[in-house]
Backbone:
């Protein structure tokens, strides 16, 4: 009996360990460095705040059109019906407009958080949401450092709303709706490499206009959307406390400890159990 | 004791059905104070749950886009699971370390843990926006393997199965199925080992869920050591719950507890108090280390800093000292008071990480609505109802029927 049970535990332990090792080794964030992500360079020095991108975005994604009016009333946030907003800030260099949407991180926290692969980093850059997989746990919202995914709290069949960089348009070779229609050339679409080159060029050619900083180059481990600005990003209400390393790296240590615990603990516990029990094998004592 | 029990013979299918139907009927008085309070709340809670699935989560909760997880996750799941930690600690003591002294309270603790997981994981379903997709991470090819939540979800599921196996001999004794009882009893140690491993990982995993919310949690509560803190605190959270629950069961179900076990209670509680004092010291020490390394001295002199000090001194250090003092004095009453303060401290700590300190700087603060509170109470009361139902029928607190002893040979 004792030997049988021991054999059973061995098999159980080995199977369990194999299962977890097999599962958890895949848990590392994919090394995406070789892939050419597409992205958009937003130049807030060129943006005139016409909010054309808000209209184009709403139209392209079947969302309610934004309330008309040339004047931007106050600082607005993206929401479950607005994937992008343009806000106006009074800064040290006068009025500056700033567009807000998903940054499409290279290593997105929301994708690492998603337990159903509903949030998905496509190979060409956009981070998309897939409704058929999502169970609505909102862990992506908890994890996103930019607070981008929005949830339809007042729906019985709620969706997560966020910019998907018009993934369907990209697949057919088109640009994102906002970038395609910007009348002021403030949105420049291309591969991330091209965007960084272009941004550097603009800063070098016009050093008095821009601050020498490219938001998104290193923030959160790098993002596909990059921002140029004539004033410091803090003045534009952009989060500057974002860490430079990728966010999924924060849980890496914990996830890597899982296979070790799964191998070591059962062996240790079984050992203690064998050591402390009396000679006569009993399981349900007394 | 076992003679009271209606069925101790092997059942054939028919009599088993009759037996089950008769057992479904309520036993005892209806108009107890607990029923009078809990029934209206449960009914109201059920109405609110219908509204939630009909009109959406926002219809009854105050959740915002910035604070997407509120009371239902922060209290029901994160705090509830910490309190359910007593099961893995006690099974470790009894089945792995062979501490026979604590054997009489293992079953009730495992039952408590199992029901806690079933109901708090059930509460999780209420919080899911698209609950019909809940099977996606379990079957199919939608494994988000790099998610901490994936790990936690799987561990919840597996641990519930492990706990059910640990508890199953009591069900077999209730049904009087001797042969099955023998098989199930033989699986106990395996389930215990598996269960302790799972518990270690998901108790800490609940903390690891918040690791990516680095800038959103107040720096006094965020550190890369949240998982270790959650694990260590689950030990004394679970044991305090065992002490608390034991003192209530002792009064409510006194007629079920044998003379021998009743007398052993004091020794058990003192032993648990020692373990609580020890682990709380380790926890307090870890917290001090994390605080010093975090270099947040300046934050102490802010409202959140006072709140932090209250938690650390009033709800960790004080009950720790009280546990130490009371087991030296052999005072059961003081131990029970210490256990209650400890539990309040755990609620405070978990809510500080998940709700109070989460987006503490947000323009619109999340405060749970009364409806969220009612649903939470509904979950807790329903769990107590099921707990009472099981205690009154299965040999959990009372001794096992005499045939289980013969079964061993």
Residues:
């Amino acid at each position: 009996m004792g030997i049988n049970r021991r054999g059973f535990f061995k098999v159980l332990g080995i199977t369990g360990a194999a299962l977890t090792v097999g599962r958890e080794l895949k848990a590392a964030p994919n090394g995406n460095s070789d892939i050419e992500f597409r992205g958009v360079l937003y130049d807030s020095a060129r943006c005139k705040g016409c909010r054309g991108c808000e209209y184009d975005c709403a139209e392209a994604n079947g969302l309610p059109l934004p309330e008309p009016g040339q004047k931007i009333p106050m600082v607005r946030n993206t929401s479950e019906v607005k994937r992008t907003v343009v806000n106006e800030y009074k800064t040290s260099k006068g009025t500056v407009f700033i567009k807000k949407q998903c940054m499409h991180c290279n290593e997105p926290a929301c994708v690492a958080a998603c337990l159903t692969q509903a949030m998905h980093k496509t190979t060409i850059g956009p981070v998309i949401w897939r409704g058929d997989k999502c169970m609505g746990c909102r862990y992506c919202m908890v994890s996103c450092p930019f607070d981008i995914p929005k949830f339809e709290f007042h729906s019985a069949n709620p969706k997560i709303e966020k910019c998907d960089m018009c993934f369907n348009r990209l697949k057919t070779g088109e640009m994102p709706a906002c970038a395609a229609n910007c009348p002021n050339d403030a949105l420049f679409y291309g591969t991330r490499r091209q965007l960084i080159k272009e941004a550097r060029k603009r800063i070098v050619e016009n050093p008095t206009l821009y601050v020498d900083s490219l938001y998104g180059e290193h923030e959160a481990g790098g993002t596909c959307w990059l921002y140029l600005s004539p004033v410091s990003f803090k003045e534009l209400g952009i989060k500057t406390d974002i860490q430079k390393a990728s966010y999924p790296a924060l849980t890496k240590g914990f996830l890597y400890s899982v296979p070790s615990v799964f191998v070591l603990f059962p062996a240790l516990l079984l050992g203690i159990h064998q050591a402390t029990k009396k000679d006569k094998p009993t399981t349900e004592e007394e | 004791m076992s003679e009271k029990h209606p069925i101790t013979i092997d059942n054939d299918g028919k009599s088993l059905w009759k037996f089950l139907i008769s057992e479904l009927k309520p036993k005892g008085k209806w108009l107890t104070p607990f029923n009078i309070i809990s029934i209206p709340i449960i009914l109201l809670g059920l109405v609110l749950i219908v509204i939630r699935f009909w009109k959406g989560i926002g219809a009854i909760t105050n959740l915002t886009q910035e604070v997407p997880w509120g009371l239902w996750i922060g209290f029901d799941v994160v705090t509830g699971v910490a309190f359910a930690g007593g099961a893995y600690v006690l099974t470790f003591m009894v089945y792995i370390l062979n501490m026979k002294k604590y054997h009489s309270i293992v079953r009730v603790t495992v039952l408590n843990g199992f029901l806690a997981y079933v109901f708090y994981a059930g509460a999780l379903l209420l919080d899911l926006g698209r609950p019909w997709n809940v099977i996606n991470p379990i079957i199919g090819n939608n494994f988000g393997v790099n998610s901490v939540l994936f790990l936690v979800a799987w561990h919840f599921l597996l641990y519930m199965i492990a706990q059910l196996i640990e508890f199953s001999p009591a069900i077999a004794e209730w049904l009087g199925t001797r042969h099955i009882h023998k098989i199930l009893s033989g699986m106990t140690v395996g389930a215990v080992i598996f269960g302790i491993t799972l518990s270690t990982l998901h108790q800490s995993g609940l903390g690891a869920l918040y690791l990516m919310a680095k800038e959103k949690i107040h720096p006094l509560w965020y550190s890369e050591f949240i998982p270790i803190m959650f694990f260590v605190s689950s030990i004394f959270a679970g044991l305090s719950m065992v002490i608390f629950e034991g003192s209530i069961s002792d009064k409510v179900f006194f007629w079920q507890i044998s003379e021998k076990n009743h007398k052993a209670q004091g020794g058990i509680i003192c032993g648990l108090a020692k373990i609580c004092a020890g682990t709380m010291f380790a926890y307090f020490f870890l917290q001090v280390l994390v605080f010093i390394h975090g270099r947040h001295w300046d934050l102490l002199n802010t409202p959140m800093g006072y709140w932090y000090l209250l938690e650390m001194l009033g709800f960790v250090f004080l009950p720790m000292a009280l546990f130490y003092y009371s087991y030296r004095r052999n005072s059961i009453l003081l131990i029970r008071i210490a256990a209650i303060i400890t539990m309040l401290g755990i609620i405070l700590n978990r809510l500080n990480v998940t709700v109070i300190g989460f987006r503490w700087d947000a323009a619109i603060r999340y405060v749970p609505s009364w409806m969220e509170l009612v649903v939470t109470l509904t979950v807790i009361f329903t769990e107590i109802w099921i707990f009472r139902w099981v205690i009154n029928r299965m040999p959990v607190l009372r001794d096992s029927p005499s045939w289980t002893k013969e079964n061993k040979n």
